[in-house]
Structure formats: C-alpha cells, structure tokens
C-alpha cells in the first residue's frame, strides 16, 4: 500500500517546516506525499522538493490544487474569463511541478465552483466552461493523471461537481484517457453515497485515480480517523480498491484538532493495516462469493467474521 497523509495536520507541531515533517512521515512509515499547490511549494523549487523527498525516502504521489481568494466566486467555471484562465494556468503550473518531482496525479477540487442562490449561475454555461478547461488541462499534461475530487457542498452551499454521478458525467464528456476521479470517503458520506459503490464503478473502469480516506457521520466533512465511525463501510470500500488493484496512494484526509497529529496518523496506519490484513485473511474470493449470494443475512455473517 502506498500511504500518504495531510501535511496541514503536521504543520503546527513541526514549525511549518516541510523538512521536519517529511522526516517524521518517513519515521512513522508513510511512503508518499501529496502537496497542496501552490500552498506547500511557494518557497521551494521542484528540484529542491525532489531532493527533500529523496532525502527522506519518500515519493511524490502528486499535487492537489488549492485555489485562493481571487477564485472565491469560482475557479475554472468563474464568470470572469480572466479568472478562469488564471485557474487553468495555475493548474498547468501545478502539473509541471508534479512532473518535476516525479508525481503522477494532479488532484483538482473545485471548492468555489458552485452556487449559494437560485438564479445565481448559468448552469449550462458553467458546465461547458469547466468541461473545456478540463480538456485543455488534460491535453496539456497527457503523461499525468488529472483527477477530479468532488464534494457536495462547503465552502459553497452547493458545489458544482457535487457527486459521483455528476463527476462521472463530466469525466465522460471530457473524454480523455488521463482524466479520472478521486473519491473522498467523507465527501461521499455527506452526499449519502456508499463509498464502496464508487470504488467499484470507477475501479472497474480504471478511473479511480485517487483515494482520500477518513471517516465521519455524514452531515459534515468531519475528517475523523479511519474506521472509527463506519468501519464496515470502510472494509467494503477497501475490498474494492484491492479488487481493482488501485495503485495510487491512499491519503489520510483527516483533521486532528485536539489529537496529536503523529499519534492520530499512527492510529490511521494501524487501522488500515489491520483492515488490509483482515481482508487478506478472509480472502477476496470469499468476499466476492458472499456478494454473489445477494443476501443481507449472508452479508451480516461476513461482518461477524470481520469481528472474529
Ligand atoms: Mn479530500
């Protein structure tokens, strides 16, 4: 398993020093890093970043776009063409940086493309604009995976790309080999989606480009530790990532606020390792055969076996 975690959780404890954080990542047992772009790279050239990763025996999984204040009314889909073009350029720059540090995935979460009011945006116009921007980005970096991370709402009352269905429709219209989807477990719970459903459908199509793992109660992006709220769903989700040989990093997108970030990350590591072992112990074939029975009662017996 390639494992990464949220850098921002570690910043306060490690004096906002990426060098110290990477050292700790390696010490804990993580293998990969996802960098927010431009947030985490502003003072560090790609060459220096690569050296810093190498020094700590870490690999880049990729970069994740973080759009700033000027994009508050939309990124790729902004009604102001100039701002939309800036968002495209920032994403191209992120792709260049990603390639130079030998990362593979550019994750695009359009946090501000969305709406708060009825009659606020022209949905079809925004749809076409985001689609065309994504095509431009995908064709700019055909050697990289361009991955759409969706979230139903927050910070906007409604996000534009808000669900598995909308993200897949957009992906299909973009129609590029190198465009896929990142599933954020908590975001899916917020939309009352079953995470495993997404992992199955995208995994089957080789379109699962990213996994953000965490847990929550559904109403909010809680970012709880893995397996602490919906353990059985987490098992089912990870079964499908294994079944379809998901090969990018699993990123712990959790938010330790009260918890010590190192201890919290270690808890995530312990949990995912244990779940992984348990899936192997039961066996993919056996789980597959249980699903074939199409029975709630048999499914409940699998839960008993997980508990044993
Ligand atoms: Mn996420």
TrEMBL record:
GO terms for molecular function: isomerase activity. It comes from the Bacteria. Residues 37-263 form the Xylose isomerase-like TIM barrel domain. Keywords: Isomerase. It holds the Pfam family AP_endonuc_2. Signal peptide: none annotated. InterPro entries: IolE/XylAMocC-like, Xyl_isomerase-like_sf, Xyl_isomerase-like_TIM-brl. This is Xylose isomerase. It comes from Tetragenococcus koreensis.
């Amino acid at each position: 398993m390639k494992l990464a975690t949220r850098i921002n959780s570690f910043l306060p404890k490690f004096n906002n020093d990426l060098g110290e954080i990477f050292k700790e990542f390696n010490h804990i047992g993580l293998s990969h890093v996802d960098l927010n772009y431009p947030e985490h790279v502003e003072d560090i050239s790609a060459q220096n970043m690569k050296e810093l990763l190498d020094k700590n025996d870490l690999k880049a999984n990729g970069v994740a776009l973080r759009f700033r204040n000027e994009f508050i009314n939309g990124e790729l889909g902004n009604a102001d063409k100039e701002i939309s073009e800036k968002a495209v350029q920032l994403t191209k720059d992120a792709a260049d940086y990603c390639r130079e540090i030998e990362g593979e995935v550019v994750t695009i979460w359009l946090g501000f493309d969305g709406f708060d009011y009825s009659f606020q945006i022209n949905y079809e116009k925004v749809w076409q604009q985001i689609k065309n921007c994504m095509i431009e980005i995908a064709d700019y970096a055909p050697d990289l995976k361009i991955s759409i991370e969706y979230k139903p709402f927050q910070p906007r009352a409604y996000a534009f790309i808000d669900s598995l269905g909308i993200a897949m429709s957009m992906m299909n219209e973009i129609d590029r080999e190198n465009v896929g989807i990142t599933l954020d477990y908590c975001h899916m719970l917020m939309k009352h989606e079953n995470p495993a459903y997404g992992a199955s459908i995208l995994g089957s199509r080789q379109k699962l480009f990213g996994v953000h793992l965490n847990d929550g109660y559904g109403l909010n992006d809680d970012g709880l530790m893995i397996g602490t709220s919906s353990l059985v769903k987490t098992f089912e989700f990870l079964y499908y990532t294994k079944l379809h040989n998901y090969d990018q990093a699993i990123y712990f997108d959790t938010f330790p606020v009260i918890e010590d970030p190192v201890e919290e990350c270690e808890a995530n590591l312990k949990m995912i390792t244990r779940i992984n072992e348990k899936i192997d112990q039961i066996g993919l074939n056996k789980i597959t055969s249980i699903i074939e029975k199409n029975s709630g009662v048999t499914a409940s017996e699998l839960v008993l076996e997980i508990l044993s």
